[in-house]
């Protein structure tokens, strides 16, 4: 069996790797749209700090998508703008929003880990190295999502609880805006 070279004159990206990276582009694009929708719902419901937090996260997810987009094209591949459909626009509660965020971030982590595993297994060390930023970023994203959910447990949702949670989410937003995640 003849072994294909990873690096050629035209491209340094294997087709399988390109496909996985484009799937991640789609996931990041959907993340951006999902968080934008959540931000809009939060703003409509009066959760101003939660909405700011989510608007910022929507922008960050788009930046994550664009970083992948550039990498694919620079490596000789073809980054594909994903179709974004099926985005939910209504939620039952602020808690549900943040439960969904954590579930989503865990799925993103699994996807990132799959790409890293693939890149290592095919000895594509450039992609492996590039993806390390995403590995670190996902740890931060999951930590923030868990922290946001902890607020519901610590503060409670009765009385001024939701207002207080929104205030605390504003503090998480400030941490994120200053370069946290």
TrEMBL record:
Protein localization: Cytoplasm
EC number: 1.16.3.2
Keywords tagged on the record: Cytoplasm, Iron, Iron storage, Metal-binding, Oxidoreductase
Keyword Oxidoreductase: yes
Catalytic activity: 4 Fe(2+) + O2 + 6 H2O = 4 iron(III) oxide-hydroxide + 12 H(+)
Domain Ferritin-like diiron: 11-156
Location, primary (coarse class): cytoplasm
Top EC class of this enzyme: oxidoreductase
Protein's recorded name: Ferritin
Organism: Fontibacter flavus
């Amino acid at each position: 069996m003849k072994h294909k070279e990873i690096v050629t004159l035209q491209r340094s990206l294997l087709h399988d790797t390109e496909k996985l990276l484009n799937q991640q582009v789609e996931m990041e694009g959907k993340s951006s749209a999902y968080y934008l929708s959540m931000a809009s719902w939060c703003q409509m419901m009066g959760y101003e700090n939660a909405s700011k937090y989510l608007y910022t996260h929507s922008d960050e997810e788009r930046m994550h998508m664009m970083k992948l987009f550039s990498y694919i094209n620079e490596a000789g591949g073809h980054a594909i703008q994903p179709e974004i459909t099926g985005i939910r626009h209504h939620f039952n509660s602020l808690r549900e929003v943040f439960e969904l965020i954590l579930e989503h971030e865990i799925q993103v982590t699994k996807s990132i880990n799959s790409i890293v595993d693939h890149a290592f297994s095919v000895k594509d060390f450039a992609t492996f190295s590039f993806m390390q930023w995403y590995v670190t970023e996902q740890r931060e994203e999951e930590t923030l999502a868990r922290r946001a959910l902890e607020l519901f447990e610590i503060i409670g949702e009765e009385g001024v609880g939701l207002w207080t949670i929104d205030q605390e989410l504003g503090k998480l937003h400030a941490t994120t805006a200053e370069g946290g995640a």
